[in-house]
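Predict structure. Input: N-acetylglucosaminylphosphatidylinositol deacetylase, 280 residues.
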Amino acid sequence: MSPAAQLRLFALLASLSQASLESGMPPSASSSSLKSGAAVPLDLRKWVGKRVLLISAHPDDIEAAVGGTIALLTAQGTEVFYTIATNGDKGCANPLCAGWSSEQIAATRRQEAFNAARVLGVPEKNVLLLDYEDSQLTSYPFAQVKASMIAAIRRFQPQIVMSWWPYPRFEMKPSQGWADLGYHPDHQTHFEAGLSLLMPEIGPSPAQVEEYYMWDFITPSHYIDISSVLDVKIKSWLEHKTQYPNSTAVSTMLTGLGQRVAANTGATNVRFAEGLQIFS
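Output follows.
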């Protein structure tokens, strides 16, 4: 990361902390830290020989956002790693879970995360679950969450990091609540902790993070054509059976999402896409 990018990172981290202290409301991402303009195709071949770390708040986040990209990366031999912050113990949309304890739900979702990753070519040993309570990430000391992320980056030593877009998207449904704006407090917390991984002093064996991306369905700076692996992405997400028991609905949802992202990028001759916003 260049010195100029490091300065922007310090400024963004400072503004995030100050905004949270003053208002308790989710801040907006600094426009100076994000690329703007038409999305361009991301050539994944440049990541051959590199290590890619995805950090997410919940066990089912990653596959929905960038499952196709992961399938393409592992197919070319790129090493991919996951760090999942919460254990998903509060969420089950399948009647099968009725009466289950939070411990049972968490254990099941843990195995689902391993299964879904395996479909995309990511082995279980590359998946780290931090086991924070679902939807409670903001209740933990930020220093504790950050320390967990630092431990992950020391373990996996990635050059590329990706995480969820953390802030509300008011252009989606401006009259609705935070959830309808694509916002979740767990996403914001793990994103801000993830940014701290780019600090150069995290030793003892700091990874040289070269690029940091947020997955972005609305205004991506880069896109990946996933038309050839959409079926693999769908199969992977279906492993989260506690969340998505209806396979037809999952297929329809992910197909529609891929089409919408492709349209939002302005790409031609791309049926299904995933989008990323680069922080640089």
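The chain has seven helices and eight strands.
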